[in-house]
Amino acid sequence: MNKKYRWYSRIITILYCIYMLLYADRYDFMALNVLLAYIPIEISFHFKQVGNRLFFLLGMLWLLFYPNAPYLFTDFFHLEQLSIYPGMHQIFGLSISDWVSFSLLTVGICIYGFLGLATIFTMLDECFRRKILQKKWQSIFFILLVNLLSSLAIFVGRFDRLHSIHLVTKPVQTLQIIFLKWSTDKVQFILLLTGVQLLLLACIVGLDKMKLGDKV
Question: Can you tell me the distance from the alpha carbon of 58 to that of 64, in angstroms, rounded to the nearest whole number?
Fold first, then answer.
């Protein structure tokens, strides 16, 4: 992505977050969620510009914030707050303000969710360019591992109410909650969300191949 479009993405993100914070009373939390999901996108812009040591540091920061992108998709359940869907076997309501809220929530989730997920391929490309990874099975293992860790982070974020910043403010307590508290439901949730993420990544790959096919 060239510098012009990077600045477009930054400005649009700032405007979206400001609007959601100041005017979207029902969904003002999306300002923080989108901002956190944008961080791995911003980090990915700088991969090619740094040396190997700084790249590893950026990579750790990217991994820390990457789960915020797929986490966005769990925000879809907030649509139940809208009055446009009154219940089973009833007609959708025509409340324009609620449909605006629906649109703002959906746009934020889909755009920043998919763009954030796509940064895993930027990271992979850079790892291969720097000879950190060299074989196809390593890329598959990398994607699977990142998605498992991401699903774990989504679980603790959604159910233990932890955010990425807690690794800085309360590192010991946060790590204990993440890695020492386990249950059958937690394992099942992680496996389910890992599958969802892999399917979403497959969609990104499919769309990219369709784009390349159109150029042939």
Answer: 10
**Short-list 142, 8, 179, CA closest to 62:** 142
Tens of pLDDT along the chain (216 residues) come to 678 889 999 999 999 999 999 988 789 999 999 999 999 999 999 999 999 999 999 999 999 999 999 999 999 988 888 777 665 555 666 778 888 889 999 999 999 999 999 999 999 999 999 999 999 999 999 999 999 999 999 999 899 888 767 777 888 888 888 888 899 999 999 999 999 999 999 999 998 877 655 554
CB 43 within 8 A of CB 65: yes
Residue type, 59: G
Q: Nearest to residue 29, comparing CAs of 40, 38, 21, 37?
A: 21
Whether this model's pTM surpasses 0.90:
no
In this structure, are residues 10 and 42 in contact, taking their beta carbons and an 8 Å threshold? yes
Query: Of 191, 41, 58, nearest to 120 (Cα)?
Result: 41
User: Could you give the C-alpha distances from 213 to 115, 203, 210, in angstroms and in order?
Assistant: 21, 15, 5
What is the residue type of 98? D
